[in-house]
């Protein structure tokens, strides 16, 4: 039994009368893709928020790589090896694709209190940035385009490259397929699959094709509680999950 | 009901639509298909007057709407569920639904709060919550509800099932089928081809701002390979 | 004791006056989200409109009408010509443009009415005073100010929180295009609401005229204070603006009324006076800094 | 290339300005130009945080004023031969007063920034204003240094090898220092630190998600900007030979901000052009009519409505049109 | 005849204080016009610029006047802080400055200058005379207030210097204050015999109106210096001012021919009653004219000084002479606001001081 890299125990988050995360325990093992599914408003994004450090839980703990990070700041967790993508992509809209990734590389390279040397022609930043864009198959022709002029698909991929720049041990992906067309979804699935064996992933997604294609394990969240955890087959066969969430696709 | 011929539009100096042709008949469901960035949303914005048409014609129920400002277009009976939801974050769920509600054409059975809450019980539970704090899917439901509350002739759904759980998605398709039976015309943009095929009467494929293919579901089945190519699948 | 009570009353009254000054700003800045530095100009235009009408007609009621008309029309023009093009722009663009408007309006008033301060008489029914606290006659006009201020607060609250107009204005502040795409003519709506804000600024100018003074540049004197009130209270909240105004009014009055006296017990007279005066000048700003450090979004943030 | 030539021409013109002024028989112009450069200096420093860091500080005149007061106070104690608090001797040496001004302004910016940066948005605007107002009233109350009436600095600071009583020399000194500052700022903006600052302006959430906590970077930029404003204030005090709280009023903060926006936010030369335009117009129109404000006001409005991005954008558009 | 002599006028025309500079300028130009573009027989050209009450702006204008226009004779500044930047530049360039209004203590005492003349008074004298008036009126317990800035603090010091009774309380208001309810409550609670207050221009209007509205005017009279109650203030305050006591060196109802002619001409030209700021502007023009007449149009500082110090002109205040520090030595009067033919006016009551100089003259070594 390998040590999980992320261990969530007894996590609780309340919004007024609503318990969005209800005594939730969960773990993610090294290298696995762990999908998190559940009805809308089940508390998936709220959980991601707590893992990332944007939302402070009311109770429970989050252990990451053996550190208790329950109260750590976002950047502190990122420095430890956490990477996340957003449900709505967050990028630097006025910059080029390359500049975005280069900045992420820079952030990973240590502190940025360097005031003199020009950064925009610094190969120590640009070379790794290009490599990352290659890794996610970002078309070279578009690397000098400004983010503001990019399509939804390009942005999603670019964001992934930025996340990877941090050399994360765990990726938190909140609806990476959202906003992608059918074709782009397939390519994104391939890209994620290609990363397998690298960072572990906690994947929130409503696109079941992608989930079943990628996930090693799946946890189903309903009303803030994990009602089932298991392999794709187990979950697909689970009648409770069928009723609460899946339905016959396209019925 | 809605017809676009040779529609052109863009953003500032850059032109995005070059030749979009589109037609939806009374009570019909039509789709706009195409890869990311091909101009589907821009077409919708051009129809709504948000990015005014720079060329071509645009008629709705026999009236030229190409030069109308958005509010006039909407007042003529087009309801929009925009890409990215765009719910009003600082309003409560109930306020979001009420603020722009209208029954301009005196429907026999207009959409009301109770009907919306029956369709999306989740919204009923969250009536007084600020829309900003809703989950992604809940916001999507709200955007759909909000458009229905304007009781339009034509409903435009731009990726309206994005981020919805499969059960809810299935429910939306069922609702759209029911609405179609009530005589509502619908223009859908969605990546869920199989559901669209069953629901829609007519499909349009966009490629780099041009309508490159149009036809009914049967024809779509027939030309599946070509269309798949355009869709990048 | 009577003095303390009187000072508290003074503080509350000042607070309501501040609210009246800030009411229009709450609407335009807090809810529509526009930084309009020229808001003070509308206040000035209202005050001058009333003063000039009063001088010509001698009637306070006509002056009221004249002031409101002047401020309202100026506001509408301001919106139609300049501000409606700036809603979607950066706050900084709004700063620069409305800074230009201040220059313009101040000089315009000089050209139209000269540099001399103006005079507005009290309305005939409110020249007397009332003894609320025994032995202390309280000007009845100030009671009128309190009444008007509270009425404006209530009206504004209902408008913003309870009517569709309020909802639409709040909606338009975030997703302007979307409101249009749902069939609402937000441009017209915004013009009207901005006009209402101008009317409120004008009303404040009219009410303040007989108490403060009507002169060129009077708008800038109150501008910062009103922004302070709105921010302390919580941007976009009518309740917050009222509460912020009362807080500022009371704190300011008490500081002025009692701090120098208290300090004199501790320090020698001239030092105490200098320090006391400096403290009371800074008071409002210290208050704002403290509030923002403790509650960064103000006391009653609109969208908590 | 074209830009480089334009820049070189501009610089040459700036250096030759005192001579040109004398040739035109307008020797007073050099003094006016000096004050414009000081304002441009202050505005550039604001531009670092406003244009590149997205921090809308409405209290920047505070640091400008502190710089000026540092020169004034040091001079006052030098004149009276009486150390400050019995410890720090006064001085009239610019090589000491200028760094001292930057240091005090930087310190003030560190304290105020550390507190203010806990807020954001409009609240940040207002809290920076609040602190500036506190300082303003503090100096109004400081009887020992002239209070509201301000203090006169009878003689400009001394610099070995220069005679600042000569307006031309003072002008060249200010020009030189401004250029040095602009060069420094240009390097900073292009450096790793500058990239982070840009990133923070565009999307703070994204920066956190790549592991950067914005606070220390914002604070550092805030302090650097404060130091720049302090230097500008020190020079202004030398030019004016006078300081009063007026120099740190909210109207001054507003003016500095207007200069930045007018010139072009986030551009290197924008604030300089903005200062020239604003003061120049004021002067020019003031020469034509006492009602100059009624012309200047609408001009500013027009710049916003039709010249998106200020003067720099206008220039770029003009050059761009010629290119294509 | 040659080219006209240029006179530079830097004054405050914008903002709330704008009407003060306007009065100075208008009266000055009236004097020039009355002499068909001349002063003392010499052609003059008056260049007016607005300092906007900003010292820096004043400085820039002075610089331009001195260096571009080569103007050697300047006047006009209303406010002390602007004077603080303008005067040193003018004087250092060996120019002449004649102040129509602002007169801080520095230039009257240690830093007095051969080329610097004041035509109004020294600031402190205003308040000292009010102290004298309070003594004359028999007030024993005074409540005194002024805004918290240098001139305000000087005002209270000046008042106390000559007032013989007890100051029951002194209060500093704020320059940016618009509401005075808190101070009025304190006055009511202190029950003084009278109130001394220094609130120039617009500040005074607000203060007096609120004072009257609070019903204090009937129970606690006021005794103030001229800047707290000029004729513009009076027009803006209205009824509320009735009964107010003040001191001044001049008033519209002075009987000497120069004053009567001035008031009539000013009213005819500008259709408003001149304030004492206007009178000072006018006297400034007359004084410069008298000097120019003697020097035959030369403004060489030494010659000009000899001529100027003679003060050989018909001052609107009757008697006028310069003291050793080149500040006025003049008479002071008690005024009262009264109804004359149904309209409020400042009415001169009695002379309270004769040939009064100022307390700083002794420190001046010229
Ligand atoms: N700040 C808040 N205040 C009140 N309720 C909130 C707040 N934030 C989230 N909620 C509620 O908590 C529940 C969980 O939201 P969350 O965003 O985690 O759902 P989710 O599982 O990500 O849903 P989806 O699949 O639709 O994105 C929702 O019902 C939401 O309305
Ligand atoms: N605001 C904008 N300014 C400039 N160009 C834009 C803007 N929005 C979109 N575009 C460009 O217009 C083109 C069409 O975009 P549009 O959003 O219409 O595509 P779409 O078919 O809806 O794609 P998706 O499936 O990603 O929503 C894209 O190339 C995009 O880069
Ligand atoms: Mg979610
Ligand atoms: Mg789209």
TrEMBL record, chain A:
<dbReference type="InterPro" id="IPR003439">
    <property type="entry name" value="ABC_transporter-like_ATP-bd"/>
</dbReference>
<dbReference type="Pfam" id="PF00005">
    <property type="entry name" value="ABC_tran"/>
</dbReference>
<dbReference type="GO" id="GO:0005886">
    <property type="term" value="C:plasma membrane"/>
</dbReference>
<keyword id="KW-0547">Nucleotide-binding</keyword>
<protein>
    <submittedName>
        <fullName>ABC transporter ATP-binding protein</fullName>
    </submittedName>
</protein>
<dbReference type="Pfam" id="PF12399">
    <property type="entry name" value="BCA_ABC_TP_C"/>
</dbReference>
<dbReference type="InterPro" id="IPR003593">
    <property type="entry name" value="AAA+_ATPase"/>
</dbReference>
<feature type="domain" description="ABC transporter">
    <location>
        <begin position="6"/>
        <end position="248"/>
    </location>
</feature>
<dbReference type="InterPro" id="IPR051120">
    <property type="entry name" value="ABC_AA/LPS_Transport"/>
</dbReference>
<dbReference type="InterPro" id="IPR032823">
    <property type="entry name" value="BCA_ABC_TP_C"/>
</dbReference>
<dbReference type="InterPro" id="IPR027417">
    <property type="entry name" value="P-loop_NTPase"/>
</dbReference>
<keyword id="KW-0067">ATP-binding</keyword>
From TrEMBL, chain B:
<dbReference type="GO" id="GO:0015658">
    <property type="term" value="F:branched-chain amino acid transmembrane transporter activity"/>
</dbReference>
<dbReference type="GO" id="GO:0005524">
    <property type="term" value="F:ATP binding"/>
</dbReference>
<keyword id="KW-0029">Amino-acid transport</keyword>
<dbReference type="InterPro" id="IPR003593">
    <property type="entry name" value="AAA+_ATPase"/>
</dbReference>
<dbReference type="InterPro" id="IPR027417">
    <property type="entry name" value="P-loop_NTPase"/>
</dbReference>
<dbReference type="GO" id="GO:0015807">
    <property type="term" value="P:L-amino acid transport"/>
</dbReference>
<dbReference type="GO" id="GO:0016887">
    <property type="term" value="F:ATP hydrolysis activity"/>
</dbReference>
<keyword id="KW-0067">ATP-binding</keyword>
<keyword id="KW-0547">Nucleotide-binding</keyword>
<dbReference type="InterPro" id="IPR052156">
    <property type="entry name" value="BCAA_Transport_ATP-bd_LivF"/>
</dbReference>
<feature type="domain" description="ABC transporter">
    <location>
        <begin position="2"/>
        <end position="233"/>
    </location>
</feature>
<keyword id="KW-0813">Transport</keyword>
UniProtKB/TrEMBL annotation, chain C:
<feature type="transmembrane region" description="Helical">
    <location>
        <begin position="141"/>
        <end position="160"/>
    </location>
</feature>
<dbReference type="GO" id="GO:0005886">
    <property type="term" value="C:plasma membrane"/>
</dbReference>
<feature type="transmembrane region" description="Helical">
    <location>
        <begin position="275"/>
        <end position="294"/>
    </location>
</feature>
<dbReference type="InterPro" id="IPR052157">
    <property type="entry name" value="BCAA_transport_permease"/>
</dbReference>
<dbReference type="Pfam" id="PF02653">
    <property type="entry name" value="BPD_transp_2"/>
</dbReference>
<keyword id="KW-0812">Transmembrane</keyword>
<keyword id="KW-1133">Transmembrane helix</keyword>
<feature type="transmembrane region" description="Helical">
    <location>
        <begin position="12"/>
        <end position="38"/>
    </location>
</feature>
<dbReference type="GO" id="GO:0022857">
    <property type="term" value="F:transmembrane transporter activity"/>
</dbReference>
<comment type="similarity">
    <text>Belongs to the binding-protein-dependent transport system permease family. LivHM subfamily.</text>
</comment>
<feature type="transmembrane region" description="Helical">
    <location>
        <begin position="242"/>
        <end position="263"/>
    </location>
</feature>
<feature type="transmembrane region" description="Helical">
    <location>
        <begin position="95"/>
        <end position="114"/>
    </location>
</feature>
Automatic annotation (TrEMBL), chain D:
<dbReference type="Pfam" id="PF02653">
    <property type="entry name" value="BPD_transp_2"/>
</dbReference>
<dbReference type="InterPro" id="IPR043428">
    <property type="entry name" value="LivM-like"/>
</dbReference>
<keyword id="KW-1003">Cell membrane</keyword>
<feature type="transmembrane region" description="Helical">
    <location>
        <begin position="32"/>
        <end position="50"/>
    </location>
</feature>
<feature type="transmembrane region" description="Helical">
    <location>
        <begin position="57"/>
        <end position="75"/>
    </location>
</feature>
<dbReference type="InterPro" id="IPR001851">
    <property type="entry name" value="ABC_transp_permease"/>
</dbReference>
<keyword id="KW-1133">Transmembrane helix</keyword>
<feature type="transmembrane region" description="Helical">
    <location>
        <begin position="293"/>
        <end position="315"/>
    </location>
</feature>
<feature type="transmembrane region" description="Helical">
    <location>
        <begin position="124"/>
        <end position="145"/>
    </location>
</feature>
<dbReference type="GO" id="GO:0015658">
    <property type="term" value="F:branched-chain amino acid transmembrane transporter activity"/>
</dbReference>
<feature type="transmembrane region" description="Helical">
    <location>
        <begin position="95"/>
        <end position="117"/>
    </location>
</feature>
<feature type="transmembrane region" description="Helical">
    <location>
        <begin position="215"/>
        <end position="236"/>
    </location>
</feature>
